[in-house]
């Protein structure tokens, strides 16, 4: 059986060019960038070039980039780093109910430590209201953290509008761009964010590497202590192979943004067309035209998510019911709860399909057909 992998929002296969870069670097660029000898200087030189490529992808400067072990660490550094650096200025934080758990659990930890967190609701499309952010702002608000694109339903948030709103407020503005990076053109100046998190493994790079963008002058308390790496903001010997491979993945992703958008739009249309032909009862969660190009979250009426996942897996289709970080949990998706309420049927019958490198139109058509057959069988 040839498996069809449609869970790229959870993680993506490493691009062959990235694998080659990773191997090449591990073989030949093994020096410690902090060493002053020639081997170390060569590693530093390549590291600096890679950092420039990472920064350029979001319209930033190389000194604004703090390399991390991935999106979770980047989110944690943004949230805890801001909270601790600004604790004398206030203790109020604003976020949304649909954030990734790397943000939500960090905020919950801060609540236990005496900070106050406002969790903004979303509408049925999974979108935060700019007016709600405005109403929640207080004099003691030190951080607003709202994701750019949701990882479960793909809804794109009004980050630029929120950034405009916060120009007149002292709060630090952070966005988790992990799911949107490499699929949307991102400019930190246009978005007007102070902090932005991304991860390598979502864009066909290696796992265990990511970065946090920090605008110059934005207060941030380090969370790792040791050496003076990352301009004293994140201690630890740099993962040179991972960083160079990540930069390679970023270059590929940036060059193919428009191509991917058009291709994934076609994928969505093909799936919807096939499901309509089979006359199954389904609904797209979120407005398909206002979501990330690679994600389509679908509610299939009369089905159960666990049975759907098992049957689709047996049919050779790898998909998920939402966030991979809650895999194995029987709890409903917190994103769908925020969108529809605790008793909504969508909580029990929704599946996320997500596209990426290597997926073909033929595979998408086959997956849609197999899904329709599974749904028809389960609904009977």
TrEMBL record:
<keyword id="KW-0663">Pyridoxal phosphate</keyword>
<keyword id="KW-0808">Transferase</keyword>
<comment type="similarity">
    <text>Belongs to the class-V pyridoxal-phosphate-dependent aminotransferase family. NifS/IscS subfamily.</text>
</comment>
<protein>
    <recommendedName>
        <fullName>cysteine desulfurase</fullName>
        <ecNumber>2.8.1.7</ecNumber>
    </recommendedName>
</protein>
<dbReference type="InterPro" id="IPR016454">
    <property type="entry name" value="Cysteine_dSase"/>
</dbReference>
<keyword id="KW-0408">Iron</keyword>
<dbReference type="InterPro" id="IPR020578">
    <property type="entry name" value="Aminotrans_V_PyrdxlP_BS"/>
</dbReference>
<dbReference type="InterPro" id="IPR000192">
    <property type="entry name" value="Aminotrans_V_dom"/>
</dbReference>
<dbReference type="InterPro" id="IPR015421">
    <property type="entry name" value="PyrdxlP-dep_Trfase_major"/>
</dbReference>
<keyword id="KW-0479">Metal-binding</keyword>
<dbReference type="InterPro" id="IPR015422">
    <property type="entry name" value="PyrdxlP-dep_Trfase_small"/>
</dbReference>
<keyword id="KW-0411">Iron-sulfur</keyword>
<feature type="domain" description="Aminotransferase class V">
    <location>
        <begin position="4"/>
        <end position="365"/>
    </location>
</feature>
<dbReference type="InterPro" id="IPR015424">
    <property type="entry name" value="PyrdxlP-dep_Trfase"/>
</dbReference>
<dbReference type="Pfam" id="PF00266">
    <property type="entry name" value="Aminotran_5"/>
</dbReference>
């Amino acid at each position: 059986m040839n498996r069809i992998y449609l869970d790229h929002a959870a993680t993506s296969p490493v691009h062959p060019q990235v694998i080659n870069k990773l191997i090449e670097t591990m073989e030949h660029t093994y020096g410690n960038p902090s060493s002053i000898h020639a081997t170390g200087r060569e590693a530093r030189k390549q590291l600096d070039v890679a950092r420039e490529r990472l920064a350029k992808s979001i319209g930033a400067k190389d000194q604004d980039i703090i390399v991390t072990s991935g999106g979770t660490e980047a989110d944690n550094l943004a949230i805890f780093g801001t909270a601790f650096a600004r604790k004398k200025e206030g203790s109020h934080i604003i976020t949304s109910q649909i954030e990734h758990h790397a943000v939500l659990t960090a905020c919950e930890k801060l609540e236990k430590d005496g900070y106050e967190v406002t969790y903004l609701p979303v509408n049925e499309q999974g979108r935060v209201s700019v007016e709600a952010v405005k109403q929640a702002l207080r004099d003691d608000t030190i951080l607003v953290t709202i994701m750019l694109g949701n990882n479960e339903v793909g809804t794109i948030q009004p980050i630029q509008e929120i950034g405009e709103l916060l120009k007149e407020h002292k709060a630090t503005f952070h966005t988790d761009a992990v799911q949107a990076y490499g699929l949307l053109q991102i400019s930190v100046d246009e978005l007007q964010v102070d902090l932005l998190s991304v991860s390598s493994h979502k864009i066909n790079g290696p796992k265990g590497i990511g970065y946090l963008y920090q605008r110059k002058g934005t207060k941030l308390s380090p969370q790792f202590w040791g050496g003076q790496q990352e301009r004293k903001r994140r201690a630890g010997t740099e993962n040179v192979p991972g960083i160079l491979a990540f930069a390679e993945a970023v270059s590929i992703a940036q060059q193919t943004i428009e191509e991917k958008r058009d291709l994934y739009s076609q994928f969505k249309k093909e799936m919807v067309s096939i499901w309509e032909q089979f006359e199954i009862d389904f609904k797209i969660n979120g407005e398909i035209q206002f979501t990330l190009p690679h994600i389509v979250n679908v509610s299939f009426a009369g089905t159960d998510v666990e049975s759907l996942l098992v049957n689709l897996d047996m049919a050779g289709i790898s998909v998920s019911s939402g966030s991979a970080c809650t895999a194995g949990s029987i709890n409903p998706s917190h994103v769908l709860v925020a969108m529809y309420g605790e008793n909504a049927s969508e909580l029990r019958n929704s599946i996320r399909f997500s596209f990426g490198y290597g997926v073909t139109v033929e595979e998408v058509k086959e997956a849609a057909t197999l899904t329709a057959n599974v749904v028809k069988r389960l609904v009977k």
